Amino acid sequence: MTGTTIGRLRVEGAELHYEVRGRGPLLLLVPGGTGGADSFEEIVDDLAEDRTVVTYDPRGLARSPLDDPEGPQRVERHAADALQLLDLVSPGASADVVGCSSGAIVALHLLTSEPGRIGRVVAHEPPVVEVLPDAAAHRAMLAQVRDAYDREGPMAAATVLAAGLRRPGDSPDVRPAAELSPRAAARVQRSMADAPYFVGKIIPGFMAYVPDVDRLRALSDRLVLAGGTDSYGELPYRPAAFLAELFGTELVHFPGGHTGLSTHPAEFGKLLREVLDAR
């Protein structure tokens, strides 16, 4: 594996921090939540043994400042950022893409909008709730999140959101919080500063996103839909399970729950490599 190249890329309305490791076929890792490039720090070196791996902080998060922090955030704009980054690293080359949570929504959009540039996509629990039969109920929940944010601030909104993401009948203390390694715990602590932006700007735009289901179906041989072994029935799990059943494809289960990348990095990374190597 070669060393790490760290750089900055000017995109429309923002400046992105990015990192490139390794040599070989191109692989883009798109983080979810408040995570940035560091979300993948425990698995990226292994993946870079035989790939050129690109990680980055999405606009507005960590080291990627926005020109206008109050502006709305759209999946399409984030996907355009990712494509511009791929063009910088390897112009015209095809890339595999792995996305987690909100990053998986970006990965889905890249596949449907740029199929000539995107090879295999692994989408781990993309919360594209608009594909679900009960989408109206989740639309109402998101309206409550926005109302809580406007009235009481980001912490209140995060509480409403967390309740809406749980499986029906669960209470906050049904399961103990997943234990994190010191490295992962420190990473989560660093990312907490971006929680208001994520709840106030990313969640409203991303969870309202409507993917092109017909296009995804046509490209389903290049799409790996994934969920966590511990998150069956939770809202972020359900769209991936629904789409996999709709397309007649396998739902690949990764260790842990929605944040399995952080709670089970070694096992998560091992399975991810197997999935990417399978053709």
From TrEMBL:
InterPro entries from the UniProt entry: AB_hydrolase, AB_hydrolase_1, AB_hydrolase_fold
Residue ranges annotated for the AB hydrolase-1 domain, each copy included: 25-135
Protein name, UniProt field: Pimeloyl-ACP methyl ester carboxylesterase
GO terms for MF: triacylglycerol lipase activity
Pfam families recorded: Abhydrolase_1
Biological process terms in GO annotation: glycerolipid catabolic process
Annotated organism of origin: Streptosporangium saharense
